[in-house]
Amino acid sequence: AAEFEMRHQNEAQLNAVGRELGMAMQKKDWDVALAKVAEAEKLLPEGMRDRLDLTRFNILIGKKDYPAAYKLAEKISDDNKDNAMVQNDLAWRMATDPAIEQRDLKLADKIATRANEASKAENPAVLDTLARVKFMNGKKSEAIALQEKAVKLADGELKPLAQRTLDSYRKGELPGAN
């Protein structure tokens, strides 16, 4: 019963810290948000702590602490080599977030490439991200080839979006991020 009581108390504390973290992020109070992430970390079992890394990355981007953000992005990528979606989300954010003033496109390329390897080059959304990063890195022909594959694999509402992106790359233009 004591263990249940402790776990229940821990959960309540974690929920409270989570609410405070959310409020701090809404207010763009990045230092408080980082302190709340550290507090939450102490309440979580060790195996679950890495889930907070993405939140910490978002805070560092908000704070415009790009060197720390990209160092953490690399750690997240290294820790999730086989998770295509984590890799893809990270690379997409790094390539498209309008709030980012200093992009590390070399790192975004590495992470997007990992996402594509983890998805065996068969996920159109991942191919779309990698194509965008290649285009932003000045590798137009590679971007076009990847985007052509994304168009072939895409279905539903993703197909016309992927095609519009491909048309833009062929014109030498970076399309808006959808």
Molecular structure report:
- The chain is an all-alpha fold and 178 residues long.
- The chain has nine helices and no strands.
- It has helices at residues 2-26, 30-43, 52-62, 66-79, 84-96, 105-118, 124-136, 140-153, 158-170.
- The protein is elongated and about 55 Å long.
Task: Tell me the layout of helices and strands.
Layout: H1 2-26, H2 30-43, H3 52-62, H4 66-79, H5 84-96, H6 105-118, H7 124-136, H8 140-153, H9 158-170
Helix pairs in contact: 1-2, 2-3, 3-4, 5-6, 5-7, 6-7, 7-8, 7-9, 8-9
Helix content: over 70%
Amino-to-carboxy terminus distance:
50 Å
Give the uncertain stretches in residue-range form: none
Secondary-structure content class: mainly alpha
Shape: elongated
Number of strands: 0
Please give the oligomerization state of what you see: single chain
Write down the Rg.
19 Å
Largest sheet: none
Strand content: under 5%
Helix-strand sequence: HHHHHHHHH
Given the structure, what is the number of helices?
9
